[in-house]
Amino acid sequence: MGIVVQKYGGTSVADKERIFRAARRAIAEYEKGNKVVVVVSAQGDTTDELIEKAKEINENPSKREMDMLLSTGEQISIALMAMAIEKLGYPVISLTGWQAGIKTDSNYSNARIKEIDTERLQRELDKRNIVVVAGFQGINKYDDITTLGRGGSDTTAVALAAALKADKCEIYTDVDGVYTADPRIVPNASKLKEISYDEMLELATLGAKVLHNRSVELAKKYNIPIVVRSSFNDNEGTVVKEVSSVEKLLVSGVACDKDIARVAVIGVENVPGKAFQIFSLLAKENINVDIILQSIGREKTKDISFTVSKNNLKQTLDVLTKNLHIIGAKDITYADNVAKVSIVGAGMVNNPGVAATMFEALYDAGINIEMISTSEIKISVLIDEKDAEKAVRAIHDKFKLHLLNNGK
């Protein structure tokens, strides 16, 4: 008898039929003699609807009050899921994030889990209850409700699996595994049978919507294998684990992120410490910066360009504009019509020709590259947003990823 954590995303609990389908899956594990924890997201488009409701009242509400509002979406889901399991004749209890002992920092809207007090969870599991926990939320030291950022229910599930020393963590979603590209963009994308934590972390961070990047970080830290599978069929999913196949794939996937903006700080004095000045200002505001490019301008000045997520753009521009005299820059410009397209693969380390192949694919498709960023297992390019999907298809074709088929 072990502990199994199952997580169901918004589409997997969107209506009555889907809730009962998820409930039956949880019960099937329970029937095997396992202790079962079910983590659920808000139903369907509930979170987006709540955001719209907030905008009707206040265009710029505080992040604390947004967390208070958005956490209600998961509270509805856990109650309905518990009612379904109850209806099917099994013992069950629903718990909000704070009732489940999930303690976070105070970074409202994007909080990080600091610890999980499992006492209540263990007590309920020992009573042989199926425990349904609200994903995406926790409580801070002020007893305020916090949320973990979009996709945070994945992180809740993996964190609970780590805290409870669970035997497995299953992430049920609307796709039946991790693909070489988004099948909605590339219809002939291949499903991967397995993928390493590092590759999945890069794909998740670079825009693949399958798993929340912090959930992969946690899984890697505590060595918890994750299985990504569909809640709509019984197909085998993709296993995310420490090392995938012995024969590492050259490229495992292509990801696309349209939720970014490029900011350029123009005419900065070319002296030591200026980059530190700029990025420390942003770090104080918890603004994550991604691709960075520094180029030498005229008259002993330099231009520094970087990318941030679109929802951090306004805050970034406000901070930099307010401190323009300290930075000593001539101007700040931005573009929010850009996209980041990336390739990821553990096999890229020893293959110097990968970047050239990617750039050739973009050249053949007539797509201009604005910025480039590389690491051992990824290459990212910044391009015009209108070219994003064409770029993903071109790169996917160039690397013949449709021929992988190792998960079908």
UniProtKB/TrEMBL annotation:
Keywords: Amino-acid biosynthesis, ATP-binding, Diaminopimelate biosynthesis, Kinase, Lysine biosynthesis, Nucleotide-binding, Transferase. One of its GO terms (molecular function) is aspartate kinase activity. Pathway: Amino-acid biosynthesis; L-lysine biosynthesis via DAP pathway; (S)-tetrahydrodipicolinate from L-aspartate: step 1/4; Amino-acid biosynthesis; L-threonine biosynthesis; L-threonine from L-aspartate: step 1/5; Amino-acid biosynthesis; L-methionine biosynthesis via de novo pathway; L-homoserine from L-aspartate: step 1/3. Its EC number is 2.7.2.4. It comes from the Bacteria. Pfam families: AA_kinase, ACT_9. It catalyses: L-aspartate + ATP = 4-phospho-L-aspartate + ADP. InterPro entries: AceGlu_kinase-like_sf, ACT-like_dom_sf, ACT_Aspartokinase, ACT_dom, AKii-LysC-BS, Asp/Glu/Uridylate_kinase, Asp_kin_monofn, Asp_kinase. Signal peptide: none annotated. CDD domains: AAK_AKii-LysC-BS, ACT_AK-LysC-DapG-like_2, ACT_AKii-LysC-BS-like_1. Residues 263-337, 343-408 form the ACT domain. Catalyzes the phosphorylation of the beta-carboxyl group of aspartic acid with ATP to yield 4-phospho-L-aspartate, which is involved in the branched biosynthetic pathway leading to the biosynthesis of amino acids threonine, isoleucine and methionine. Belongs to the aspartokinase family. This is Aspartokinase. It comes from Caldicellulosiruptor morganii.
